[in-house]
Design goal:
The protein is mainly beta and about 500 residues long. It is built from seven helices and 31 strands. The structure holds CU-O-CU linkage and copper (II) ion (2 copies).
Amino acid sequence: MGIKLKITALMVSVLIITGCSSNNSQPDVEMGQSTMNHDMMKEHMSHDEVVSLNNSTGENELNIPSMLESDNEEGIVYTVRAQKGKTEIFDGTESITYGYNGSFLGPMLRFDKGDTVKIRTINELDEETTFHWHGLEVAGDADGGPHDTLKPGEEKVIEFKVEQEASTLWFHPHPEGKTAEQVYNGLAGLIYIEDANSKSLGLPNDYGKNDIPLIFQDRTFDDKKQLNYDAARNDDGTIGDTLLINGTLNPKLTVNKEKVRLRLLNGSNARNYTFKLNTGDSFVQIATDGGFLNEPVTLKEITLTPSERAEIVVDFSQLKTSNDLALINEDGSILLPFEVSDESGESRNIPREMNSFSVTEEEMSLPVTKKVELFGMMDQVTINGKKFDPERIDFTQQQGVTEVWEIYNKPDEMGGMIHPFHIHGAQFKILSRNGQEPPENERGWKDSISIQPDETVKIAIQFKHKGVYMFHCHILEHEDNGMMGQVKVE
Ligand code: C2O
Ligand code: CU
Ligand code: CU
C-alpha cells in the first residue's frame, strides 16, 4: 500500500508540474487555475524568525473557564453574547478586551451526543461579528461563517443535534477580514462533547481539577498594557512575546499527584507550539481534534498549529515533583509551571482501547476529486491561485458522500511556510502525508491539519449536512487576507 501511494503522489505531482488538468483514473478533479506571482517573494524576509515567548513566572493560578449554565431546563438552551469589556490581565491595569458572556474569552459549552441544542447568539459589540463553531458538524446555516454576520444589537437562534463523538471543539468569530482582530481581542470559547464512550473510559474528567483546558494564545501588549491589534498586526500572522493561557498571564497550574488530562488548544492567530515537559518525560496523547485515538500514543513532544487540539494525559504521580516542573515550548521557554500538591489524587489506568476509528480500504482507493493548492505569504496568499470571494463557490460536494481532497503546500523561493488547513462542518481522516501513512497520533478525527512546505496531504471527508462551508488557512491573517474558499454541500 505504501508503494502504491507513493506512486500516486508522484503521478499527481508530475501532473501539476506539466499543468495537465485531467487524468483518466482521477476524474472530475476540481481545481482552479493556479497563477504564480514572483514579486511577492522578494519583499519577504524569512519564514523562520519567530519572536520567542517570555517565560511564565508562574505567579498567577491558571484561570479555568466557567461552564455555561443552560437557560432552560426543558430545552437545552444557551445564550452566548459577544461583548466588549475591561479585563485586569496585568495587576492594577485594565485592558480593553472582547469576550463571550464576560469581558475576556468565553465559557465552556458542554453538550452530550444526542442532545438537540439551541443557542441564542447575541452581538453586543459595536461591530459586526459571527458565531462559528469550529469542528462542529452542523448545517451551513448554523455554522457561523462569514455569510452569517450579526450587526451590533442583532441576535440569532441556531438549533442543531449533536451527532458526533466526544471531543474538544471551540468557537470563535468569523467575519470576513476581521476574524484575526476579533479573536486577538479575546473572542474564543470551548465546547466539550461527551458521549457514552467518553463517560465509560474512566479517563480523568473532573473539570478544572484533573481535566484541564489549556487555550494557548500569544499576544503583544503596548506600553499601556493594551492589546493594540493594528500595531501588532503582521500580514503573515500576528505573533507576540506574551503568552496567555486561558487568558491568564504568567500562569501556573496546581495539580495532585495523579494522572491529569490536559486539553490543549492552539488558539493563537499564527504561532505554532511544540509542547514538552521540561524533565524530558513522556506523556500520552488520547485525542485528536475530533475524537479519541484508538489507543493512547506515547510522546515526548507534540506540535500543534493554530486551531488544532490534542488531549494528553500527564502522570504526575510518576514525575519527580521537583519544584521546577513545567510544560515548555520547543525552544525551552516556560509555558506553564506545575505545582504538584502532596495529595495523591485518584489512581486510574488509561484504557488501551478507546475508540474504533478506521480508514477503510474503500476510502484508501477513492480517486482524488478535490485539489487544494496553498501558496504565498503576507497579503499575497491564495488557494488554487485565487483569493476568497464570498460570491464564488469553489467546490461542490454531495451530502453524505466521501471524497478525497488533496492539499498541497506549494513552496516559494524562500522555502515557504507551514499552513494549518481547516475545513468547516466536518471531521475528516488523514489518508496520507506525502504518500506515507500519517503518524500514529494523527490516526483520528481531524478538522485542522498542519501542512509543511512542499507537502501533499490526502484526506477523506464527508459532510453530514448541507450548506456552504469555508475551508481556509487558520493563520488568521492569511484567512483574512483571502486564503479561503467555499465548498457547497448539496
Ligand atoms: Cu476556526 Cu473557519 O475556523
Ligand atoms: Cu472552523
Ligand atoms: Cu497560511
